[in-house]
Amino acid sequence: MKIFQTITILAATLMMAGCGDFLKESSQDTDYVNTWNDLDELLIGDCYMPVHGSYSFLGDESGSNNYGSFLHLIADEMQEITEVSGLQVFDKHEREFGYFTWQQRVGQNETYSDFFTENSTWTKVYKCINVANNVLKSADDVPQSTTADKQGVLKVRGEAHFLRGFYYFWLTNLYGKPYDPATAKTDLGVPLKTSEEVQDVKFGRNTVQECYDQVLADLLQAESELSQVTTPKKSIYRADSTAVNLLLSRVYLYMQNWNKAAEYARKVIAVHPALQNLGENAAKFAQKSNVENIFSMGGDDVPLLLQCGVKGMAVSQELYSSYSANDLRRSQWYWSNGAYRGVIKAPEGSVSNPVPTTDKNYYHYVYNNALSGSKLEVSSLFWLRSAEAYLNLAEAEAYAGNEPQARAALLTLMKCRYATGAPELNVEGKSGENLVSLIREERRREFAFEGQRWFDLRRYRVCEPYPSKISITHDYTYYEARNSTKATETHRFVLTQDDASWTLPIPAEVLKFNTGMKNNDNQWRTYTVVSK
Q: Number of C-alpha atoms within 13 angstroms, CB side, residue 443?
């Protein structure tokens, strides 16, 4: 007899949406599930973030146009670019202001007169979590009479556990404090919900420890389930046990469990050791053919964030200068013209009239304009690749005092990133804090604009071996009119070393409905006026 399992997707979605009626069952989509294949299609359509073109799901909070992930804006990867003669002129995107300047409310507009919507990221991620919850509940009821059915259910359950763990990991690191073993049991994270039912309650926030416990429970269950799947995955856009192991390595690294972080990094390297040697292969890095790819999901918003021209954004000078002349990533991953620097990891877009690299508007026409709306092969967010396994292993071993193993893992990666014979490859003399600093610097260079820098800076603050705190400065310039290039005033904002805004505020829409939910301690942001 056929089994018809009703899944109320949108009702579950709105349970954690944070927009008005947080738990009100106001809308439903009904899917009738007969087999594990139906659940698999549900995962693809509603739980995996699609690989868009220059659009990120962690993007525009106004909901009109997606101009990108705020993770790049709040870290030290970008700076505004105001004076580059001969380049295209673009408007500033006011919706970036609240993130770029670390406002008390990230929806703050630049004139302090109104707010943009703040909860689209929260809503989108919790929607995916609730789809995973429904898939996991329904997987128990589909037929498993054949080996293929049993394998299919294991695959679906494993991927749903992986995705739910990944999403809670991201949410916790956006809205909760970084994991500190001494305070994780009292620090606030995000609300946890793992059941599929609509609950007529107002949610509070679980602790960071409870959130990480849930992440680990999901990922370890995913590892168990996906390791039993015997058919190879068909695409880098679907998770397998190797993807789970790499994410587990990262999670344990954040939790300062060095032995487990190293253990899972080695598991990844044992089955997926390949690295793309930039000295032997100059092909664009962010594409499906990259041998390092383990998993890709999310959006690539970098071209639209880094709009080439006056009043736009550029790769920060500090980040760009961190790559030496011997570092092949600088020449293969970036394009510069005068003060402007753009990211070119992805293949060029399709343009009717090719623009030479010497043209000052090359980046705009070939990356920003030509890639807008394209379906790029690899995302800039939720991208797991083998390089991370080597860096996770190097960092964990260095903290654990196993420095020869740390240097060996680090050098394996660096040999694929630097020119042959580069003096930077001489890492034998590195030890203690110098070795850790080098590993962190390489991590910054390796994962630039891949959504990891902000999280790394946060966890370094509470890392028991060699804690590190920095401040970040962002300038924001005002102009006479929207399309004018004449600046009127520049405001300088500083995220200080112990600023509360190292953790994002809970979206205002979520707090409005969930009466009593505690917000983070973000303060009103002040600035100084500077002349440029």
A: 25
Q: Residue 13's closest CA among 3, 4, 5, 21?
A: 21
Q: What DSSP designation does 95 have? A: G
- In this structure, are residues 393 and 405 in contact, taking their beta carbons and an 8 Å threshold? yes
Q: Nearest 5°: CA angle at 428, between 423 and 433?
A: 105
| Closest C-alpha among 394, 465, 403 to residue 428 | 403
Q: Read off the pLDDT of each residue in 418-446 and give the average, rounded to a whole number.
A: 98
Question: What does the DSSP 8-state code read for residue 197?
Answer: S
Report the C-alpha gap between 313 and 307 in whole angstroms: 6
In tens, the pLDDT along 483-531 reads: 788 899 999 999 999 999 999 999 999 999 898 999 999 999 999 999 8
Give Cα 419 distance to the centre of its chain: 29
SS3 437: helix
CB burial readout 139-159, b (16+ within 10 A) else e: beebebeeeeeebbbbbbbbb
Name, in order, each residue with C-beta under 8 angstroms of 267's C-beta and a sequence gap of 6 or more. Answer: 242, 245, 249
Whole-number pLDDT of residue 166: 97
Angle between the 258-271 and 241-254 helix axes, to the nearest 10 degrees?
160
Instruction: Report yes or no: 427 and 386 within 8 Å, Cβ to Cβ.
Output: no
pLDDT tops 70 at residue 3: no
Beta-strand pair 78-81/312-315: antiparallel
For helices 403-414 and 432-446, give the axis angle rounded to 10 degrees.
Answer: 30
Q: What is the pLDDT of residues 101-138, one digit of tens each?
A: 999 999 999 999 999 999 988 999 999 999 999 999 99
Domains parsed from the chain with CATH numbers: 5-54+119-231 (1.25.40.890)
Q: How far is 224 from 205, CA to CA, in rounded Å?
A: 29
* Residue given tokens 């799947």 in the structure block: 229
What is the 3-class SS of 34-75, one letter each residue? CCHHHHHHHHHHHHCCCCCCCCCCCCCCCCCCCCCCHHHHHC
| CA 16, 19, 22, 25 torsion-angle sign | negative
In whole angstroms, what is the distance from residue 110 CA to residue 241 CA? Answer: 45
Query: What DSSP designation does 310 have?
Result: B
Tokens 């032995």 found at: 259
Q: What is the DSSP string of 324-383?
A: -TTBHHHHHHEEEETTEEEE--SPPPP-SS---TTSTTHHIIIIIHHHTT---SS-SSSE
Answer whether residue 80 shows pLDDT above 50: yes
Alpha helices in 201-257 (DSSP H): 208-226, 241-254
